[in-house]
Amino acid sequence: MIPDYGVRSLAEVLPGLLDGAFGLEPARAVALLLVDGLGAELLAAHAEFAPFLSSLSDAGPLTVGFPSSTAISLASIGTGLPPGGHGLLGTSLRLSDEVVMDTLRWTEHGTQGKVDLRESWVPETVQPAGTVFERAEAAGIAVHVVSQPAFEHSGLTRAVLRGGAFVGTHALGDLAGGMLAALSEPGRQLVYGYHADLDAMGHVYGPGSVPWQLQLAQVDRLVESLAALLPEDTLLAVTGDHGMVTMTDTVDADTHPDLRTGVAALSGEPRARHVHAEPGAAADVLSAWQEVLGDAAWTVSREQAVQEGWFGPVSSRYTDRIGDVVAAARGGFGVTRTKGEAFLSSLVGQHGSLTSAEQLVPLLVARSTSV
């Protein structure tokens, strides 16, 4: 499923909510609640645990972009650009011959010491495009970002969610309270809220597991509470940054000799791998990875992935961040790294690829009832 960039992807959400796209009437105050891991297919399959969410009007589904993972999706939401335009092209991202960065934590990927890269790889330089929040403020719209305190000065926030006032929250109660307080301020308002725990339950226990279902029920109550207390002339939208699948079959790129030969570095994640070849080895690496992965993945050259629009239009400054070979997993498959990514490789639930289970997210809409 090639993402529908420019029409129905996450990059269009915030500008569209402000301008009345997706068939929605504009409102004085607009809020977007991003529920990490809220896939459209998962929500439909477990609707009994989310009766309120399931009752809302759905202006989706939307495609999230490739890779279908949090850092990439947040960058598309925050900048209004597809991955090829904002340059965050993997959960782990190769920035140079020496540095592969964890884009969620803005640290050196795979190091025991978790080396902070915010000074050596300045977030505003790694991703220099202006954000939707910055543009909204310049247009006279007040902006609030309501999320966990640890994210306020993080590299990812600085790179793709900069602009506006940051409101730190600790639980569902103050997440809802912080969003409602911002929406209640006079004048035009844009409020962005983030909830992480559904994704965590999916990773640890599997999407659709009992803990995941019960967390979905909590998200349902959160949204119902928000919708019931919306101030006048307010629109609340709820979406996800990706869906999720249960990983049932793997190959270990750290131990399989054919997946190491000619490879200078690996980035991405188990469901969406960038394979960076040594000079002159790209063709041989592509052949080897296609042979080993077979029908378990779509395995193509960088040129083919770009031509087919996997990342949307790709800026020339970001081409080298894409692997010489790109592998997008099918079914429940994943390319793990048990040495370099031991914890990530152990997770039950995974995402990142081009399947509809990972790509499709809802765009659920509630409006204030007061006039």
UniProtKB/TrEMBL annotation:
<dbReference type="GO" id="GO:0016787">
    <property type="term" value="F:hydrolase activity"/>
</dbReference>
<dbReference type="InterPro" id="IPR017850">
    <property type="entry name" value="Alkaline_phosphatase_core_sf"/>
</dbReference>
<dbReference type="InterPro" id="IPR002591">
    <property type="entry name" value="Phosphodiest/P_Trfase"/>
</dbReference>
<protein>
    <submittedName>
        <fullName>Type I phosphodiesterase/nucleotide pyrophosphatase</fullName>
    </submittedName>
</protein>
<dbReference type="Pfam" id="PF01663">
    <property type="entry name" value="Phosphodiest"/>
</dbReference>
